[in-house]
Amino acid sequence: MTPPERSVAERVVFAALLGVGLPIALIALVLVTAAVFPGLASGSYGWLALLDALWEHGPWVALPIAWPLLRALRIRPAWAAAALAAICLHGLWTMDSPGMNLIVLGGAIAFPLAVLGTDERAHWSVRAGVAAVVVAIYLA
């Protein structure tokens, strides 16, 4: 027996929570890594240099991690939503100076946008609006 499908609002909320949770998990991973392997976090910037090195590839690391998590949350199509979220995250994180708030909360923007943009039942205008927002993120 398959579980009932979630409403659009539920999928958007769960995607936003996942989008906030992934960067926080990355920061926690960096802090644990810096504590377990103090030699990696040496230098003038300490663990911030390690965080910067990991953050550069964060959106693309989020893709294979988010896919099964979105699927477990019954957000379909999970692979398309994860791919679009990674593209949005890359655009947000490569802005001129995004700041730590936008980096941490960027997932709360990218994942709900991705869910709305990949929803098969969404009206074409919703998908076009999401595409326009993604383009605007890269042009900003």
Automatic annotation (TrEMBL):
Keyword Transmembrane part of the UniProt annotation: yes
Keywords of this entry: Membrane, Transmembrane, Transmembrane helix
Residue ranges of the TM segments: 12-41, 47-70, 77-93, 99-117
Superkingdom, natural source: Bacteria
Protein name, as recorded: Uncharacterized protein
Organism: Nonomuraea soli
